Amino acid sequence: MAQTSPLWYFLWVAVAFFGVLTWYLDKFGKRQQTVRLSALCGVVSMLSLVVWTWTDF
Question: What are the residue ranges spanned by the domains of the chain?
Answer without folding.
Answer: 6-56
